[in-house]
Amino acid sequence: MATPFSDALNTIFGANLVRHWKMWETSGTVADDATDNVDANYVSGPTINQTPLSADAGAKSVLLDGVDDAVRQATGGIFGATTGAEWTCGVLFNSSDAAQFAAIISMGRTNTSFGHMMLYVQDGDLKLGYCNTDGTSWTTQFNCTVDVCDGQTHLLTFTKTTNIENRVYADNDKTSSTLGTGNPVDNSNFRMFVGEPTRALAIGPTDRFDGKVEQFFFANQAITDEQVATLVTAITPASGQPARKRWGGINYAAAGQRGVW
Asked: Whole-model pTM?
């Protein structure tokens, strides 16, 4: 039997796992945080206790309607996330809405003069953008042509390994660059959302996420290809194994682009 996803997370990250939102809280307002930090609220009453996306004991997903639902950090500040060189965030999700232009993970400051990082879907494809300006242009953007809105469970992972490298994984498949992303700052305006943008951007997604989410995590540690593979093996979703479609790496530094958020 495969190791449960939650156990695999704890084995990989240990004390560096500073947030782990399990989306099967029954109160209807608060996302259960396995790290005992209660600071994630459901926005606009998404439908809870849906079909699980993993084989974790008691797991349930939450259905976000794509209209006004989200899971939002309830308090200001970066909740113990690192200001060092390494960190990782990720989410288990499932969607069949290939037409949406929606944020899956969004993090950044709520004011308009600082940067944002957004993992989002557009026309079924996964994209990641860094906005380091006033919200009118991406400092850089990954365009990853992998169908992540195919009705199957997917693990989306972003890891920052050093000041000059980052990687995005869709299940086991990755793209990477030597673009420096900078580090999170313990700032009262910093927020982290699942299913909606941290704020409106002229270049950013116009929709909220339409689909199911089950678990979100943030760790003060980078993750390796092998550890990502361990997490993918641990998912074993009730609806079938995640899709594994190939997409290649893009080196934006070779084109002279560099951004810090």
From this structure: 0.86
